[in-house]
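Lab notebook, design round three. We kept the backbone fixed and only want residue identities now. Task for the bench partner: fill in a sequence for the structure below.
Input C-alpha cells:
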C-alpha cells in the first residue's frame, strides 16, 4: 500500500514520536513504507511522514552502491528499518551537503551534519542492534531520526535562508506544488 506523504505544515511533522510497544507486528507497515518511499524516489522515510507519530524510520541507500563503485569509495550501504532508535553519539567532522525532503518538495538547501553516527535500534524482528555508520548513510539516518524528534532539515537553516524559502513553504502548506507521488496537505497558513 502506498501512503500519501504528509506535507510540510501538518502538525505530525513537529510532534516528538511515541515509542512502539516491543513485539508489535510492524512488518506490513514497514513493507508499505518501503513501497511508498520507492514510489517517491526517496532514500529514507519516517513514520511521521505518512501521518504516524511513532518511532520508526526506514533507509535504503543500496541502490546508490553501483554509482559509487565507479568512484571507488568505502561508503556503507544499507536497507533497514529502525524501530525505537536512539542515537548514542555522533562524531567526526561536520560536512555540508544539499538535502531535500519528500515532505518539503522543491526545496533543497545545504545542511551541516556530523560524518558519523552510532545508533541503537530494533529491527522488524525485534532484534536489538547497536551500529555505527558514516558518510551519506549516516546523513540519511540523522535526517530521518530528526523526523521522529519533530525536527526538519530546514530547522538547520539560517534566518536569512528561512526567509528566502518562506514563499515556497507557504505554497507547500496550501498544496500548490506538483509531485510525482501522492501527498496530504495541511491547507492552512502557518507561522515560519
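Proposed sequence:
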Amino acid at each position: 500500500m502506498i501512503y500519501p506523504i504528509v506535507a510540510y505544515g501538518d502538525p505530525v511533522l513537529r510532534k516528538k514520536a511515541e515509542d512502539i510497544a516491543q513485539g508489535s507486528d510492524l512488518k506490513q507497515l514497514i513493507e508499505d513504507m518501503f513501497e511508498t518511499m520507492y514510489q517517491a524516489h526517496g532514500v529514507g522515510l519516517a513514520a511521521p511522514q505518512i501521518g504516524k507519530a511513532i518511532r520508526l524510520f526506514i533507509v535504503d541507500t543500496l541502490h546508490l552502491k553501483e554509482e559509487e563503485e565507479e568512484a571507488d569509495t568505502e561508503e556503507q550501504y544499507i536497507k533497514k528499518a529502525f524501530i525505537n532508535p536512539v542515537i548514542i553519539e555522533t562524531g567526526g567532522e561536520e560536512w555540508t551537503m544539499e538535502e531535500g525532503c519528500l515532505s518539503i518538495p522543491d526545496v533543497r538547501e545545504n545542511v551541516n551534519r556530523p560524518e558519523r553516527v552510532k545508533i541503537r535500534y530494533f529491527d522488524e524482528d525485534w532484534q536489538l542492534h547497536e551500529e555505527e555508520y558514516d558518510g551519506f548513510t549516516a546523513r540519511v539516518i540523522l535526517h530521518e531520526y530528526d523526523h521522529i524528534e519533530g525536527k526538519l532539515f530546514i530547522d538547520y537553516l539560517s534566518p536569512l535562508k528561512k526567509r528566502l524559502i518562506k514563499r515556497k513553504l507557504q505554497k507547500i502548506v496550501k498544496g500548490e506544488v506538483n509531485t510525482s507521488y501522492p501527498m496530504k496537505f495541511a491547507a492552512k497558513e502557518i507561522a515560519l
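Keep this in mind before ordering anything: The domain at 5-184 is CATH 3.90.45.10 (Peptide Deformylase).
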